[in-house]
Amino acid sequence: MATVMAFTSPAAEFPLGSVFENLPGVTVELERLIPHETLIVPYFWVRGVETEDIEAAFDPHEGVTDIRLVDSIEDEYLMRAEWKQAYFGVLSALAKANVVVLTGIGTKDEWRFEVRGESQEAIAEFREDCQDNDIPIEITAVHAMLPIQGEGYELTDTQREALVLAYERGYFDTPREASLEEIAEELGITQQSLSSRLRRGHRRLIGGTLASLA
Question: Which residues form the Bacterioopsin transcriptional activator GAF and HTH associated domain (predicted)?
């Protein structure tokens, strides 16, 4: 059965965390992860800062071979990085175990990840690799991924919880009766984490309903 795990990791332990030394107020959110032969290529957003040279904000790291800007929208930057699989870290362990990153959000305090493995064994392999290679992670939740009623929806529990609470609090009403900040506080997560869960939940719902009928 597919299993979802949430965990945290110190900001400095993750290669992209070097940006927090130069820009402590930014938030970094992984967009997608592409393992490719000897390289791992993550796309990610950098938010909360305006700078003329966002690439220079990332200090060199032994595992990272290239970081480049793909696009920018006001103070949000879509970026692409490459690093060698020979450098074994969190993303390398995820790629090796074929574990999918659902959310990955970093601040100067820590990184918060939510990942999904096709089986409990995949999650166990990831945890063992982290332990064997002294990769510091703190597991905060592990649970089976259960679909809500309706074939093809396959929402995670956290996505369903966020969507239902946002609906109940009137976040989707016009005018809104609750803000993203209020709902995130009630769930005990950051606004960025809530925004990511809502966005991914919407995508899954649309994929399982409207898109499947097109």
Answer: 25-143
d(CA 36, CA 85): 9
- pLDDT tens per residue across span 190-203: 888 888 889 888 87
Taking the C-alpha atoms of residue 139 and residue 176, their distance in angstroms, rounded to an integer, is 34
Please give the angle made by the CA atoms of 154, 100 and 163, to the nearest 5 degrees.
Answer: 40
pTM above 0.70, yes or no: no
Cα–Cα distance, 37 to 84 (Å, whole number): 9
Q: How many CB atoms are located within 10 Å of the residue 12 CB?
A: 14
Q: Residue 166 phi/psi, 5° resolution? A: -60, -40
Query: Residue 43 forms beta bridges with which residues?
Result: 32, 80
- Spell 32-54 as b/e; 16+ CB within 10 A means b: ebebeeeebebebbbbebeeeeb
| pLDDT tens track for 27-41 | 888 877 666 656 677
Query: What backbone phi and psi angles, to 5 degrees, belong to 183?
Result: -70, -40
22-to-38, 54, 76, 192 alpha-carbon distances in Å: 29, 10, 16, 21
| Position 113, amino acid | F
Average pLDDT over residues 163-185: 88
| Ramachandran area for residue 51 (φ above 0: left; ψ -120 to 50: alpha; else beta) | beta
SS3 of 64-82: the string is EEEEEEEEEECCEEEEEEE
